[in-house]
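Chain A, query sequence.
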Amino acid sequence: MPNYEPIAKLKGVSALLDDSEETMSMVLIGLIVPWDKQPRRKINPEPFKSLVESVRVNGILQPLLVRPIDNKYLLVAGERRWRAALEVGLREVPVYIREMGDEEATECALLENLQREDLNAMDETEGVLDLLSLRLSTERDVVISLLNQMSNMKEGKVTNGVIRNQAAEESIKQLFERFGKLTWQSFLKNRIPLLNLPSELSAALREGKIDYTKARTLAKIKNETMRSQVLNEVLATNMTCRDIERHIRSLSDPQSPQQFTVRERFRAVTKRIEKASVWDDPSTQEELKSLLEKMEALLAVQKG
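Chain A, predicted structure.
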């Protein structure tokens, strides 16, 4: 679960139906097929387990959104619920059936995806960019360029020869107003930089292991080996951004006190040992026992 609120604040699949008169139907789950253009990239296991248990007890509370195709129904929105229903063994599920083209289906899928509570900041950022790209019928890079242009215009940095696309700008503003959480300025400043994160930080962020503020702080470490080391310590100790900043300074400045670094490394190692599967390995236990005896001896000398 992310420690930030998702951008989108729309209210379920019903918000995607634009107050139409479509009604809910019950459909055999075997007639529903997944869509290969689903924007979802990863299903986090822990939240999904909770969803499965909820579906097992309560059934599907929020209908899926599907489109009819070749005597079956193509899943547009509600993939997690559909997968949970399959795992539980439900015979049929509630759905909204809508005739729609590929573009409308993609937009609905993106909007539904952005409402997930377990969505990480990386997938959320890419989802918003994909939605903007779809709305403006252009590529991600063009959208980012347009956002930068809007920012420059707002700050009075007008570039000669740049032709404003006011219709596109208005479409961007309207979309962020619909989200009601993050402004386009904040999105440009805080989220777009995530697209350039080093691969290990991008992976940790996408897997929900760290939040985007910590990822951006860790990205300040240019040395790959050092960055990986600090990332492992952050994952083990749950350092704050301020702790990470201090740790980076201590690593880069040989004259700075090392007490903080040693303490954090000790905490990281002990937590990793607790979680590691080393307790059933006799040889590893002997090595740990030897290290513990040395530590105990060191403490005895200091106490003496």
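The chain has three domains: 13-101, 121-196, 220-303. Confidence is low (pLDDT under 50) at residues 1-6, 8-14, 255-260.
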